[in-house]
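On clarity, I found the account of how folds are encoded harder to follow than it need be. An entry of this sort, consisting of the sequence and the corresponding backbone structure tokens, reads as follows:
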Amino acid sequence: MYDSTAKEWHHLMIPRLPPELYLLPVASAVFVCNPLTQTWKELPGRSVNVWSPIVVGMIWTKRSCTDVYKIIWVGSDGKHEVYDSINNSWARPGDIPPEIRLSLKFKSQAVSINTTIYFLQSDPELIVSYDLESGVWKQFLVPNPPHSTEYTLAECEGRIMLVALLTENAATCVCIWELQRLTLLWKEVDRMPNIWCLEFYGKHLSMNCLGNKGLLMLLVRSRLMNRVVAYDVLKKWWLKVPCCGKSQGRKRCWVAYGTAFYPCLTAAP
């Protein structure tokens, strides 16, 4: 876990999971944890077995002064379930409306604003939303910025952001866009400092991005290069992140998946 305030990595102990979880390409078990308190909770088994990639989203809210969280998973075939921490169970809220064309971009994380989860589509270029309280699905036609690749959704203070690589004439940089609600167009709000982007010139790059609440971590890599960068959306602040202490020598930093969160010692799974 990387602490952007202290600018250091913390190595967390993950409990040993049941060995049968490693035998399946898509495990049926789902865990919720608080990394600070090292508390873990295994959720009840899902009623639907899915053997294809899924996108997972999570919201937190209050109900009668009680903290509540809900989790949704959505598969490429439209199957989905919602977990409610109050009932401690999964529910199938019904089929996705036929007018919602589902072609999820699984590399992009889902982001949440209040009770709504937003998913990025790949073909056609859409943003699909689902309100976990009302159960309403919506979709919005939002063209991607020209010459951009490796898209990922992000969120900051109720605003939907897009992070992607922008390539023009063999020069590549990381750009940040904000979705304009009225026009449904992306407006560029920042880009990585030019001097940092010089080492990207002419390289074939890929990028992973994770985070929320205005704090992002980016992994930009090529065949011979690995760069980890943190970005604060509000402050427009870029920070080169060193590899964690246990990733030295020939081993390379690799950000598979994750999220940003506000530290809270009282949150319980």
Remarks:
- The longest helix spans residues 194-197.
- The two ends are 18 Å apart (CA to CA).
